[in-house]
Request: fold
Amino acid sequence: MNAKVYEAMNDQIKHELYSAYFYLSMSAYCETENLPGFAKWLKVQAEEEQEHAMKLYDYLLDRGEKISLKAIEQPPVEFKGVKDVFTKVYEHEQKVTGLINGIYAKAVEANDVASQIFLQWFINEQVEEEKNASSVLAMVTKLEGSLGGLYQLDHQLGMREAD
Ligand code: FEO
Reply:
């Protein structure tokens, strides 16, 4: 594999695992705020991020590459409420989209067609990830100041199941 494509993909394993860590930290925060539905949604999201990391891990091994796991930094612990949480989720997903697009650009440059096809799943997934985050953020923003509305949304988000 082209070295730049390999390095970017190998690094992406860490970025996806960091995403899992970040969402799990947010999930724990929501538990302490007595919002179990928000916590469940974020925990399911954290599990999905681990799956994303494993997709990259398996792909690199399938291509005969070495896995070099990098250190995962500590995520934030304190948040200023669910609007702050979902603002951060949305911003984070936009950042991840940029990273995926960057790997894709490297795969195009290296004429690595297999990686381009592999990355299409992630490109589509990012459209979904950004849509989900922005829609929860929009609902949270709309419900600001309404405790009843917030609890209703908490109930709704708690119904999210793992894929
Ligand atoms: Fe793995 Fe939320 O992107």
Summary: The radius of gyration is 17 Å.
